[in-house]
Structures are given as C-alpha cells and as structure tokens.
C-alpha cells in the first residue's frame, strides 16, 4: 500500500537507526495551499537568510499516519520575482506522521547552502513509529533542494 521504499526503509531503520535516506522533493502542487498549513502557523513556519527562505509544515490530513510535509520557498527568483516552491515528503505522496519545526536548527555552508534539520516521526506498517531527524539543504544559488532522514 505504501510502496516498496517505505517497507525497505523501515526494515533498514530497524536494523541500523543511523542510516540516512534521501527524501522526495517535488515542485509545489495542491499540498502548497494555504488551507493545509499546519496550525498554529506561528509554530509551524520559520524564515532564514534574512527572510528569503521560508519553510512551513503542511498537514494534508490524509493519509492520517503520514500527512505532514515540508513546504520550502526559496531563491532563485523567477522573472516575476517569485521564489521557487518545493515540497519535501518521506516519499512521493507519503509524508511524515509528525513534524516539530519548533525544534529546527539550521547551519549555512557556502559550498552547499542552508541546511535545516527538524525532528520528524515516521510511521511504518504494523503501527510502528520511529523518531528521526529530517535534514533539508537549500542552495539558493542553484535552486537545488535535497532532503534526507537520519
């Protein structure tokens, strides 16, 4: 039901909890709608790089055990002056069971960009939940956004 990646990822996480997995990063779609911004907004959005980069937790409600995603608005800007928009999920169409942006930490490496890390909860078959950290690197110069769970 949730794809081969989820089952494989959970199996490896159970064996080696320090293994990192790349996450799905896609262009914004219906999940970027303001109606799915997680409440309270004050706790579920942060800005970095003098306000040029914004991240926000999205709650799509379903699937209930994997409804949280991360919205990323960042440079580069398009010809109209809008930032690019990306969604970070556990895998395509499947988010996280929990997301705590209030605990986020960030660091900047000029060669890679800004990396934001926040605790997430991952659901797996058998109603197992795992606490991990999601790391997302945002390169404002190239527009690359990458994510992985540790």
Which properties best describe this structure?
150 residues, globular, 8% helix, 46% strand, 6-stranded antiparallel sheet, disordered N terminus, 1 helix
Strand content: over 45%
* Backbone CA Rg: 15 Å
Low-confidence stretches: 1-19
Q: Mean pLDDT across all residues, rounded?
A: 86
Helical fraction: under 10%
The total number of structural domains is: 1
Order of helices and strands: HEEEEEEEEEEE
Helix count, DSSP H or I runs of 4 or more residues = 1
- The computed structural class is mainly beta
| Largest sheet: number of strands, sense, barrel closure | 6 strands, antiparallel
Care to give the gist of this entry?
The protein is mainly β.
Structure, explained:
The chain is mainly β. It has one domain. The chain has one helix and eleven strands, in the order H-E-E-E-E-E-E-E-E-E-E-E. Residues 1-19 have low confidence and may be disordered.
């Amino acid at each position: 039901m949730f794809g081969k990646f989820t089952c494989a990822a959970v199996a490896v996480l159970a064996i080696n909890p320090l293994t990192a997995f790349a996450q799905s990063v896609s262009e914004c779609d219906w999940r970027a709608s303001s109606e799915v911004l997680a409440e309270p907004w004050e706790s579920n959005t942060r800005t970095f790089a003098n306000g040029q980069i914004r991240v926000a937790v999205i709650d799509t409600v379903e699937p209930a055990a994997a409804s949280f995603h991360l919205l990323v608005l960042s440079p580069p800007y398009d010809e109209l002056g809008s930032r690019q928009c990306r969604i970070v999920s556990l895998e395509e169409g499947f988010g996280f069971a929990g997301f705590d942006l209030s605990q986020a930490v960030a660091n900047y490496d000029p060669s890679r960009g800004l990396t934001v890390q926040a605790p997430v909860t991952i659901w797996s078959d058998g109603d197992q939940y795992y606490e991990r950290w999601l790391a997302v690197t945002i390169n404002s110069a190239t527009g690359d956004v990458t994510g992985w769970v540790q």
